[in-house]
Amino acid sequence: MPYDRNSDLPESVRDSLPSHAQDIYREAYNSAWDQYKDPEKRRGDDTREETAHQVAWAAVKKKYEKSNGGKWKKK
Fold first, then answer.
1. Could you tell me the maximum CA-CA distance found in the chain, to the nearest angstrom?
2. Can you say how many angstroms the Cα of residue 10 is from the centroid of all Cα atoms in its chain?
3. How far apart are CA 9 and CA 39, in angstroms?
4. Which one, of 73, 31, 72, 74, lies nearest residue 54 by Cα?
5. pLDDT tens string 1-56
6. Backbone φ, ψ for residue 74 (5° rounding)
7. Considering only CA atoms, which of 1, 59, 9, 50 is closest in space to residue 30?
């Protein structure tokens, strides 16, 4: 299901990503949720939710990276 606010994101996402990265994640997730509603558009047996999470993480990783200390920071 799409997320209306960052506070609706999974706890693991909220706890690990800075707020701007959460915005990126939420927007990418919601877009992918709509884009991949048809199973034929997804890879393998991935569910709509799995695909949307994969797309969201890929979007975050374009602008952010994990530091040596494990914190996410802008590239």
1. 40
2. 10
3. 23
4. 31
5. 899 999 999 999 999 999 999 999 999 999 999 999 999 899 899 999 999 999 99
6. -65, 145
7. 1
Please report, for residues 14, 41, 56, the alpha-carbon distance to residue 61 in angstroms, rounded to integers and kept in the order given.
Answer: 15, 22, 9
Enter the tokens of residue 72: 């996410």
pLDDT of residue 2: 95
Total-model pTM: 0.92
Measured distance CA(18)–CA(46) in Å, rounded: 27
Please state the three-class secondary structure of the chain as a single string: CCCCCHHHCCHHHHHHCCHHHHHHHHHHHHHHHHHCCCHHHCCCCCCHHHHHHHHHHHHHHHHEEECCCCCEEEC
Q: Are 14 and 6 in contact (CB under 8 A)?
A: yes
